[in-house]
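Reopening: structure tokens for the flavin-adenine dinucleotide complex, inputs below.
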Amino acid sequence: MMFSFDYQNIEIKGNFKLAEVCSLGVGNGALFFSEVDSAEKLITALNFAKERALRVFFLGEGSNVLFSDRFFPFFVIKNRIKGVSLNKEGFVEVFSGTSLSEFLNFLEDNELTGYEELSGIPGSVGGAVYGNAGAFGREINNFLSEVLSFTKDGLLKKRKRKDLKFSYRWSSFKENGEFIYKIIFKLNKGKKEEIKKKREEIIEYRKNRLPENPPIVKSAGSFFKNILLPDGKKLAVGAILEKLGAKEMSVGGAAVSKKHANFLINKGNAKAKDFMELARRLKRIVKEKEGFEIEEEVIVLDKFF
Ligand SMILES: Cc1cc2nc3c(=O)[nH]c(=O)nc-3n(C[C@H](O)[C@H](O)[C@H](O)COP(=O)(O)OP(=O)(O)OC[C@H]3O[C@@H](n4cnc5c(N)ncnc54)[C@H](O)[C@@H]3O)c2cc1C
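Re-run output (same inputs, fresh job):
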């Protein structure tokens, strides 16, 4: 049973069902859960965690996570710190809980070009920076200038792009466990009509080739990372899986999408263990038939027990 209480003006929920806050729609209860919409509330939540020596997990829009069927012994802090503006020097300042689509709308309205390729990707800007989200050769770090983040002790840090170790689906936030708070970008001036047209083309392309965005289809995007070859080129895992007949595979309520073989979808009542078993089988056939080890792009949260 879920319960809730007040801690210094933030609401904390106990035994909160995580299936409700992720795009795959799976997940058991979290020890504690709270939503924060300001830096002050974030600090309060971090203090609550520190006083009780709780492990903390930061959540954006939940579009890239697979929670466990088991109880999650963490304090999950969901980020709702939002807002985007242009500063005097012409840099765009975005709070991390802003959705990527709101951010891209702002860029279009302000005739700033560079990120049209990211159109249609769900999730928050913070989540995108954490995993260096990308599409069509563009990555969120490309026009990023600086990131302000909070350590779990509530200390504010400011780092430049070059100090954040961005690479394919990687940033230093995957190592340091900090909360991404505000991101500063420098984009180029463009023409509104051209930006709009390119965004529409990308959305149309995605619509024809990928399953619809959640909540229409419950997925977490590409389940596996593409294969990085020694020459730096990438092999599309979706094409390999399709060739191996993966589109016919399912385990319990988890199935490979018929539209794109690197998307695993929840047909209705999937459990995390269904996804993990399906992923295990897919990894095995790719290894056996093609000789490649593939690894999850989705953040799998079943290993902390
Ligand atoms: C239909 C669909 C299509 C997709 N297409 C793409 C695509 O084309 N390219 C692509 O790269 N991804 C894609 N994704 C994956 C996903 O949308 C992105 O990874 C997105 O950037 C995740 O953002 P989020 O807010 O949902 O993160 P979440 O799922 O909430 O979190 C993901 C990780 O980021 C961490 N995190 C989130 N916010 C913060 C923060 N403020 N501070 C510190 N850590 C944080 C979390 O702890 C977690 O480990 C797709 C997903 C779906 C469902």
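The longest strand covers residues 10-17. The domain at 84-194 is CATH 3.30.465.10 (Uridine Diphospho-n-acetylenolpyruvylglucosamine Reductase; domain 3). Marking as resolved unless the reporter disagrees.
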